[in-house]
Amino acid sequence: MSEVILNVIGTAQDAGLPHPNCFCKNCMEAIQNPRFRRLAASLAIVFPNERKWHLIDASPDLREQMTKLQLQYGMHGKLMDSIFLTHAHLGHYPGLLFLGREAIGATGIPVMAGKKMKQLLEDQAPWSQLTKLGNIQTHEISDGQLISISEQVFIKPVEVPHRNEFSETFGFIIEGPNKKVLYIPDIDRWHEWKLDIYKAAEEVDICLLDGTFHSVKDLEKIGRDFREIPHPLMTETMDRLQDLAREKEIYFTHLNHSNPAIDSDRTIRNEIENRGFKIADDGMEIQL
């Protein structure tokens, strides 16, 4: 049985940490000290013995994320074997452009996307150049479809509600030989999802869930209206899943720069961890 590693190559909300045009406490620390930086939320499924890897979301930070991954696993110059996309928001697909003529000039990288997302990539510039030049090959995926990326690893898209201005939005269930992971970096509200988050979490070993905002106060501090940027609050998610926190590994990812859970003083992070929940960090590895 070959080794399969899920590498969390980014854990920040779309614009990363430090956030552009922001000098809040979290951003200033990240500006001054690289260890506080966080790259945009993304995952890599790595088969180190076979020198293969698959990407979930092509973030704006893909150039750096890919280099780190290739160096870490001795895959210098080895591009990803496929890319799965959650949706068409800033943090999740602009990295595709690095595969194009102006940069890598890749050939035939399979990109797995929903029907609307696939159409966007094929019809709308600049993405359409990637498909016309054959840098990427788009493949339509659908809710509940089981997709095999190896004999041991399967990915199942699960559609979630999330401000679908340009495309549908998926989370993914990633099933390896030993562990099953639920990955939902973006969702509007748990109660709007056709599935029950408690039952979905029960059926996996590890959850990586939308932790964009800890509470309404996060947005008040930066002058944004919570109603304009719907995400489930971490406090609500913990209340919903509290009974599972001791038996499942439940991580928060896609963390906004304003989120006190990533404050260096660890006050809120300690409260979260004392409840049995965890904060995902860049570079974290999960043995699938």
Give a quick summary of the entry.
This protein is an alpha/beta fold. It has eight helices and 14 strands.
Description:
A 7-stranded mixed sheet has the order 6-5-4-3-2-1-14. It has a 7-stranded mixed sheet with strand order 7-8-9-10-11-12-13. It has helices at residues 25-32, 62-72, 115-123, 127-132, 197-202, 216-221, 234-241, 267-274, and strands spanning 5-10, 42-47, 52-56, 82-84, 109-113, 136-140, 147-148, 154-159, 170-175, 180-184, 206-210, 249-253, 278-279, 284-287. It contains 8 helices and 14 strands. By secondary structure, the chain is α/β, with parallel strands linked by helices. The longest helix has 11 residues, at 62-72. The chain has one domain: Ribonuclease Z/Hydroxyacylglutathione hydrolase-like (Metallo-beta-lactamase, Chain A, 4-Layer Sandwich).
Strand-residue fraction? 15-25%
Write down the domain tally: 1
At CATH level 2, the architecture is 4-Layer Sandwich
Q: CATH superfamily name?
A: Ribonuclease Z/Hydroxyacylglutathione hydrolase-like
Largest sheet: 7 strands, mixed
Could you tell me the CATH topology label: Metallo-beta-lactamase, Chain A
Mean pLDDT value: 95
Estimated helix fraction: 10-25%
Oligomer: single chain
The gross shape turns out to be globular
Number of strands: 14
**Order of helical and strand elements:** EHEEHEEHHEEEEEHEHHEHEE
Distance N terminus to C terminus?
Answer: 11 Å
